[in-house]
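We close this part of the discussion by returning to an individual protein. Part of our work consisted of pairing the sequence of a single chain with a tokenised description of its backbone. The amino acid sequence and the backbone structure tokens for this protein are reproduced below.
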Amino acid sequence: MAHVEEKMTVERWPSHPETASLEGKNKLTGFWIFLGGETALFASLFATYLALKDHVPSEEHLKAEQLFHLPLAFVMTMLLLTSSLTSVYAMYHMKNYDFKKMITWIVITILLGLCFLGLEIYEFVEYVHQGHTFRSSAFGSAFYFLVGTHGLHVLIGLGWATLLVIRNMKRGLSVYNAAKFNTFSLYWHFIDVVWVFIFTVVYLLGVLG
């Protein structure tokens, strides 16, 4: 059955549009279940990294404290945390039935995410040039698996947000797509939280030894 979107007015717009329909409630429930699986995935990757981070072939091989650039990782962290804040602004305007401002803040979120991803790619290229590759050591494999998996999630989130913007530019806001925008925002917050743990466990503790 084709979905029929109901046109809304500011006065009729619900205070929680993301859960105003049964479909929205089901999306939210399903997404929390999905995040439970994602949490288990990253927990296993963190455990693997902590177990293997000191496993390098020889003393000459670069270790975390010699390899990681904390200022660069800090800039990446600020970009991603700022993008989380801009996604909050987007959801604020969604709840106030302001489609244009919501889209504006989502686009800003996408741009910040692209900057983060660009810096992460630059970082990986630098490490490879220094001999720190996926196959160079157990430390290298664990690092690229963990940070690379997070980077893949960022890429998926950027593609998701871009498609949402493109598909709904002419549709405006409805209870139907409000649930979709809200689900993306929750996903984006999740990958931001995961990065905070990566910054702390991998970069900060790595540099501090």
